[in-house]
């Protein structure tokens, strides 16, 4: 899969160094994937949660942080829409938040 907004993830882990390993692992696994449907994501990330509108919530750092991505299966593209703490996540609408 091709990831859009990897630079935003890098900036995030530079500001939050405790997330670097988790984010880099997520990037590596996503780049190596070839998802065709939401069920495929669960084979890579068993704790991921499809939430509608093509979006999926991923846990980063054992659920300390959340990452929302919009997956365009047909195009093989993953758009990073959000990454942040649970507190920040609770203040957004995960289905409609705009991509970075």
How much of the sequence lies in strands comes to 25-35%
Largest sheet: 5 strands, mixed
Radius of gyration: 12 Å
Placed side by side, the strands forming the largest sheet appear as: 1-5-4-3-2
Number of domains: 1
What ranges have pLDDT less than 50 throughout 5 or more consecutive residues?
A: none
**Average pLDDT:** 93
Principal-axes shape call? globular
Distance between the termini: 18 Å
Order of SSEs, N→C? EHHHEEEEH
The count of β-strands is 5
Question: Which CATH C-level class is it?
Answer: Alpha Beta
CATH topology: YaeB-like fold
| Continuous helix count | 4
Q: Which CATH-level-2 architecture? A: 2-Layer Sandwich
User: Oligomerization state of this entry?
Assistant: single chain
Helix content: 25-40%
Topology of helices and strands:
Blueprint: E1 2-4, H1 6-15, H2 20-31, H3 38-44, E2 49-52, E3 55-60, E4 65-72, E5 77-85, H4 86-89
Parallel strand pairs: 1-5
Antiparallel strand pairs: 2-3, 3-4, 4-5
Q: Can you give keywords for this protein?
A:
alpha+beta, five-stranded mixed sheet, 100 residues, single chain, globular, YaeB-like fold
């Amino acid at each position: 899969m091709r990831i859009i907004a990897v630079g935003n993830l890098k900036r995030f882990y530079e500001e939050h160094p405790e997330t670097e390993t988790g984010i880099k692992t997520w990037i590596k696994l996503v780049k190596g994937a070839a998802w065709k449907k939401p069920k495929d994501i669960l084979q890579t990330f068993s704790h991921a949660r499809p939430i509608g509108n093509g979006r999926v919530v991923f846990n980063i750092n054992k659920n300390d942080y959340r990452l929302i991505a919009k997956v365009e299966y047909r195009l093989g593209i993953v758009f990073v829409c959000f990454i942040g703490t649970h507190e920040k996540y609770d203040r957004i609408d995960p289905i409609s938040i705009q991509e970075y």
